[in-house]
């Protein structure tokens, strides 16, 4: 009991509430770097820079998402002019808003993780915003499972962004990963098998073109007795002649002159060769499916999921672009709110998305005809902040007068 009393002495730390699973996901030691389970560099090279379907899918989503306008508001008003809007519209000297967000969305699609750095002191509006490459960033978890630092490595040089009291100079946006506590799962990882199939099919087509764009055949040597074989010199000479005069695109269609004893036996396509192009198209559709892009928008033939291009484009914005933008904008808005101490919300302006104009018009008409709702309730359904007292007074002043005069209490005749 004495020793227990001494342990509970003046030097005891106050109890801190935290998740019970924190120590379990903190790995075996504090400060250990939790590496990503997949090689982002290789996947980016194979699935983005080396695959046209993956490249176009990432570019289509990133460009469409970065083009959406963003609005900043709190519970009372929507801001037309705000210091946070200024830094978002011009985040750094070399990038504009669209350039910054395009890079951020592309990093999330390629690696499942996006990192945004704020330059400035905590408690103030950041002076600049920068997107950091995901393949260079490592998360360092603490004993409670939460990150205590982010380490950015370029070659042998490293820089550590420390997380102090929950204040992080880096905004980490990640996709859901069922088997990783610190890193997200990218669509390109889910489509890795389809990307390998598509790339292998492209290499097969390239090899076919290199061989005169037709199926190979066989040169049969009969010999004088019909059973003799060629000597080593004859075989090497024939091989050299074939490679220099009859193989490759530049020699396509050149007639072949065979000496005595040699006979050319052409070979046709096998059924598996004829189905190879269909396998490539199926792999392309799987890649587009993993990214959430309708194959019709990528020009992939044989897909009739949507009735027309406009319907496919609307589904692309509703199911892929908007969820991504809302997730990223919400994370950045929450991060900036903690940094500045001002409760604000950053979200896309749906009224300016041309692809969703028919749905938005129908919603506006439906809400406008709901006479049982007040003006503030209608605005809340449309995602708008309530009107201020001055704005409400202006609305009532601009309302047209009724058909007759306002009835007042009548006084009896004298």
Automatic annotation (TrEMBL):
Top-level taxonomic group: Bacteria
InterPro entries for this protein: Phage/GTA_portal, Portal_HK97
NCBIfam families membership: portal_HK97 (TIGR01537)
Protein name (record): Phage portal protein
